[in-house]
Write a structure and sequence with these properties.
heterodimer; A: 337 residues; alpha/beta; pyruvate-formate lyase- activating enzyme; seven-stranded mixed beta sheet; 31% helix; B: 297 residues; Rossmann fold; five-stranded mixed beta barrel
Chain lengths: 337, 297
């Protein structure tokens, strides 16, 4: 089932996306909000069979990141061409933010690009850093959305602006097909240890397959990011993260790295309550978590221990200059798109 | 009220049918082995082991009223599977074909709702247009009928949209119109022909409804502890959460193996449970929840 807003039924990107699903029933709607996130919907039930919703975004194409989040010395912004993710990570805030698990794709990329260009011109040469994988995975649905195929060449025109593609996907073919790596584009992969990935990151490529994707990008000269986010506690977390770091840095060279970050598990408390109701059988939510200042996180002593020990272990593999913790500190209350 | 005896979250029938006509009701009542509820009610009502059915009469207001009435009569529990089954007209489809709604539009207000299909649909889907009075000219792709726009938003107040569906059988088209006035047996036979896909789909949704009920169930030991000590409302919430965590961390062990004997009051018991949780190591594993589907539209 593909829901399409009536006003974009004939948009070229709508037609291109629909052409990939010739057997899908197309259901016109006035606005995507008629279908997505209505009262009385269940994220968990919809996740069994999510539909695609094609929509037009009308305003607020680009947002500032919350204070303290991002690259120091740059203005940090984000934009979101898609809501929701094809993966099913149990710690993800999207399950708490939306009642729907459908994927909304805003097809009017040209309007995003118009506003991004405006922001870049207004910055008059000041460096800007754009994040793209906040409400979705930047690359996971690439064969359908052609997001990277559209935005990477666009950003190549503006060397003073950075684009970060945040992903767990191995859909890197459009990047590998480029003649040369685009120097102001960072492909940032999220990782948890293999056992955590298997238990919590449902439907995602394995850690090993992600590392293989990193290697292929590295060979083509792309700048890489590593995001150890969120840090997940188990009794033997230190061994698990040590093994993960060893596994990655055996194959990824420090000189390929643009930035490395790690961030603790953190959910706004309202989202945590929602997710806990959706998945009461999930051991992650039965763990040593506590609520403070409107957020739910690991007990402070545990969190400090995890961040401290993982930082120490990480810095054995990478130069300190590429370690940027603020790239992983999730905002307390994500803005509604 | 009859439904009040239905008991706990898992108890009682998971299916609720709303139909307009007695002729639509009869085959469903037989197939799902329901019996008439003989007390005096403003609507005709049937009940069986797995389902309830109410005959609303024609029109969206009647459908909405009957839906709300059945909800209360059947115990007022949320998260059940709801179906509006009936006949409708279409400009092209053959008489006897059946469809599930993927969109319900109220012609009078212009409002639309979108039933969410999360299991295999045994029949094709189509948009439904709810009209105020019976029409004889049908513009494709709509199925014309008089109930769904009253039923759907009302049922969604009592359940989640994934469990609320409309199942329509084509009774008339430009070659076979209502002007020939349908007999009871004709309507009955149209529904009868389509009972198999309806039953298959209904039972699939009943399975989902049971899953939802299991998620909302009280954790093991909760009722027992509430009966033993006086917990404040805040303490009840904390108790529930602690018992839920213990059920996950130490499955199969009541109170996670903690000994309530030492506790003299509610607050002590909460401390006992907290202490027990802190002793159990965290082991992540694939949760035993619902499997997720292939993430392709």
């Amino acid at each position: 089932m593909i829901y399409v807003e009536e006003e974009i039924l004939n948009h070229p990107r709508t037609l291109q996306i629909q052409s990939r699903f010739p057997d899908a029933e197309v259901v016109p709607c006035s606005r995507y909000g008629e279908v997505f996130n209505r009262r009385a919907q269940s994220f968990r039930l919809q996740k069994r069979r999510p539909s695609l919703i094609l929509a037009r975004k009308h305003r607020n194409f680009v947002h500032d990141t919350p204070e303290g989040y991002g690259i120091r010395g740059a203005r940090n912004l984000y934009f979101t061409h898609m809501l929701n993710c094809i993966y099913d990570c149990r710690y993800c805030f999207l399950q708490g933010m939306f009642r729907s698990a459908h994927y909304v794709v805003f097809v009017n990329y040209e309007d995003f690009q118009w506003e991004i260009e405006e922001r870049i011109r207004a910055a008059q040469g000041q460096p800007l850093y754009f994040f793209s994988g906040y409400d979705c995975d930047s690359l996971a649905l690439e064969p359908v959305t052609r997001f990277a195929a559209t935005f990477v060449p666009f950003f190549a025109r503006f060397p003073q602006a950075w684009l970060e593609l945040r992903t767990k996907s191995t859909q890197v073919k459009p990047l590998l097909d480029w003649d040369a790596a685009v120097p102001n584009v960072v492909v940032a992969f999220s990782f948890t240890p293999a056992e955590v990935q298997e238990a919590l990151e449902h439907l995602t490529p394995s850690v090993d397959r992600r590392i293989r994707a990193l290697e292929r990008l590295q060979e083509r000269g792309w700048k890489l990011g590593l995001r150890f986010d969120p840090l997940i506690y188990t009794e033997d977390f230190r061994d698990r993260y040590r093994r993960l770091f060893a596994q990655i840095f055996e194959r990824v060279r420090p000189e390929s790295l643009h930035s490395v970050s790690l961030g603790p598990f953190l959910l706004p408390d309202a989202f945590f309550r929602t997710v806990g109701r959706l998945y009461p059988e999930e051991p992650l939510f039965a763990g040593p978590l506590e609520e403070t200042a409107g957020s739910v996180a690991y007990r402070r002593d545990l969190e400090a221990e995890m961040v401290g020990q993982c930082t120490e272990d990480l810095l054995r593999h990478i130069p300190r200059e590429v370690f940027i913790p603020a790239l992983s500190a999730a905002p307390t209350v994500p803005p509604v798109p | 009220m009859l439904g009040a005896a239905e008991g706990g979250t898992f108890g009682g029938p998971m299916l609720r049918f709303v139909v307009a006509l007695q002729a639509e009701a009869r085959p469903i009542v037989d197939r799902f082995r329901m019996e008439a509820v003989f007390e005096s009610h403003p609507f005709r009502v049937y009940r069986g082991d797995e389902s309830w059915l109410i005959v609303s009469g024609l029109g969206k207001a009647a459908a909405a009223a009957a839906t709300a009435y059945l909800h209360l009569l059947s115990g007022g529990m949320t998260g059940k599977a709801w179906f509006n089954v009936g006949i409708g007209g279409h400009g092209l489809h053959l008489v006897g074909d059946s469809f599930l709604a993927h969109k319900v539009t109220d012609q009078a207000s212009g409002l639309s709702w979108y039933p969410q299909l999360v299991i295999d649909a045994p029949r094709p889907t189509a948009p439904i247009l709810t009209v105020e009075k019976v029409e004889e000219e049908y513009t494709p792709p709509w199925i014309y009928e008089t109930q769904a726009a009253g039923f759907f938003p009302t049922a969604c107040r009592f359940s989640t949209a994934e469990l609320v569906h409309c199942f329509k059988v084509i009774s008339d088209n430009p070659d076979a119109t209502l002007s020939r006035r349908m007999s009871t047996s004709y309507v009955q036979s149209l529904v009868e022909q389509n009972l198999r896909p309806l039953q298959e789909f209904a039972r699939g949704l009943a399975g989902l409804a049971r899953e939802v009920a299991a998620l909302n169930a009280d954790p093991p030991g909760y009722a027992g502890l509430l009966g033993r000590w006086q917990f404040t409302v805040t303490e009840q919430r904390r108790l529930r959460r602690l018992l839920q965590r213990l059920a996950v961390l130490a499955p199969g062990e009541l109170y996670g193996g903690a000994e309530p004997g030492a506790a003299r009051e509610a607050r002590d018991m909460l401390e006992v449970l907290e202490t027990r949780i802190s002793e159990i190591p965290i082991r992540l594993g694939a949760p035993a929840g619902a499997p997720v589907g292939i993430p392709i539209p």
